[in-house]
Amino acid sequence: MSVLSAVLFCLPALTLAQVNLKPYDVSAAYAFTQSDLNHDGVFDRSELERFFREYDINGDGSITFHEFSNVVNENHIHNSDYNHFLHALYAVYDVNNDHYVNHIDFDRFFAIADYNGDNLLEKPEFVHYFSVIFETLESV
Questions:
Q1: How far apart (Å, rounded) are the C-alpha atoms in residues 40 and 82?
Q2: CB 1 within 8 A of CB 114
Q3: N vs C: which end of the chain shows fewer Cβ within 10 Å?
């Protein structure tokens, strides 16, 4: 999908996010470094699944806003601006806007970000996708 599609999918997340993410590509590159758990230069579906399991506290196959908030709070992130930003990201991941993030949402997120369709998110794809998301979230 195109960059425009990625932006359209994040429209439900347009909330007050007062976190300075500039330069966006540097923030996105940092996010990639934190997400590439095996440090092979690629964010793959197994790493995506690992994040999903971390947030799906009760293991029912969906991440509620409450579960997401609990994980954010457990990580000792007490800056309210940062919390607002992370909660806006929850809405980005909730692609179908049903107030649950499930595997369908994660698959759609992955497909949008994987613009060359090889089922892997190389660093340039990841950085490009999240740069658009970060800019969009910060501009509202």
A1: 28
A2: no
A3: C
